[in-house]
Please model this.
Amino acid sequence: MKLSQNNRRLFKLAIGLIITASIISAPAILPVFRLNLLGRYLSLAIVALGVDLIWGFAGLLSLGQGIFFTLGGYCAAMYLQLNSSAELPNGIPEFFGLYGVQKLPFFWEPFKSSFFTLIAIWLIPALVAGLLGFLVFRNRIKGVYFSILTQAALLVFFNFFNGQQKLINGTNGLKTDVTELFGQMVGSDSMQRYFFWITALLVVLAWIFARWIVRDRFGNVLIAIRDDEPRLRFTGYNPTFFKTIVFSIAGGLAGISGALYTVQSGIVSPQFMTVPFSIEMVIWVAVGGRGTLLGAILGAVVINYTKSLVSEALPASWMFIQGGLFILVVTALPEGVLGWFQNDGPKNLLSRLGIARPISTYPSLEIDGKEEVKP
Amino acid sequence: MSKPLLELRQIFVSFDGFLALNNLSISLQPGELRAVIGPNGAGKTTFLDVITGKVSPTSGEVLFKGFSLLRKNEHHIARLGIGRKFQSPRVFENLTVFENLALAVSKPKRPLPLLLGRNINRYSDQIHHLMSIVNLQARASTTAGSLSHGQKQWLEIAMLVGQDPDMLLVDEPVAGLTDEETELTADLLKSLAGDHTVLVIDHDMEFIRRLNSPVTVLHQGNVLCEGSMQEIQQNPEVIEVYLGRPEGGNL
Model:
């Protein structure tokens, strides 16, 4: 028996309130260094929401979300670099001088516009994800082959970005902390505070957006794709389009996340496209709770914050802790921490230990009223 | 006679040289109820796969309402009005009974209309009606995965009806059902014929007899004979390949 609708709602409300309260109070309590870390991890929550949409709901395990994350980061960084190079001799970012580049590569041009950049941050990753997704899904590639393919794509992008010194500074990446925005240094304390607020707001908006996506039948179609895709075809739905759309949405969210992460960490580089980082995104969602949305946010923020605290205290031990955490979740809490709570995990544990009364085998059926059929 | 709703002309399906369907020709009139029987490996399921677009035939033509179904995708064929129930019940296990039915009855099936203009309660009456037909009202908010085998069978039949297809292809609807449930299923299918064209595949002779419909016997990918249940049972060829087996070939 699951928690009753009311308890469930209260539980979610409580978690929501705790998160909101901690976000609002954070700038007052935390020193800027910690605040900045928290802001970064909050931005990672947005990419995790996307992973939850495609993996937790539609069952698409992508190991290549780093591509879209990094694309968003580069979009933001290119704008900032251009925006701060007006006084430079050529009017182009400084690093070009190292490679003897005199003229701005053509694809940099539109990033002079802030309007274009704000759109590009989510649209370019979404389009790339949509195109990649469509080609893969149309050919009915799924399961582990899809995962392998996304990882291969990640490596292709990684190697390409690494090698293009003359276009995007290759392996060095683009720095943003010494660039200027609205006449202020992006890396300055006051700017970082603004970014924190923007990130916090966008996390909430992204969460509302993701909830809107999975509400009602669209979300049910995604779950149906995960459960039995061929059956869905015979019901008259075309899974290819649904998967393409949701993969593209996850790509767009990853782009926003990457841009926010970039401005708060001061640099974007191909290192964002390494294989472990994209796998970590999946781990956050798995630990937080697949298909719960809120779990993805919690997973991303809590795991990363713990990571930085642990790494400060015991350098080099984090990888073991993270690996152990993942094994624990896969074996003991397959629904993730939040999923475990929602499915009466604590009660079951207590009853297994003989503390609480076990649940009766045949709980009385709730006779259906119309209001109970909400998803 | 009027134009057939579904017509298969000289269908061949070859899997690596093995002929699953061998020059199969069948036609169904609108409103007809037809039973198809045949021993294992006779090509019954492949025959449904060809109609629903899962398998494309090596040669031959499939016409539905006069249009060719060849090279059309499964979802496209489903939208044209052909619904299919699978051999083992296939429902969406992590969705509730209500949500399963909502997916079936939902008229918009494209992503954008579903995302923008949606209101699940619009279909509430229709879904409750479907649930009452198959006796699942009390289970509306139970996940389909926790239903019994028989209930899953019925849920899938209800989903099929909810799709409101012109033609229902029903593959072994009574496998694993109790006698009483089998009778009810037979009555349900009979009541659907007329408004819909129903094609039933099954092994269960009692059930087929109860349907009281023309029977087509498949053998080695071809039509062995057609006729009423009585005629079929007296046909020496049929007795040899199928009915002669112990337990009425209920394999």
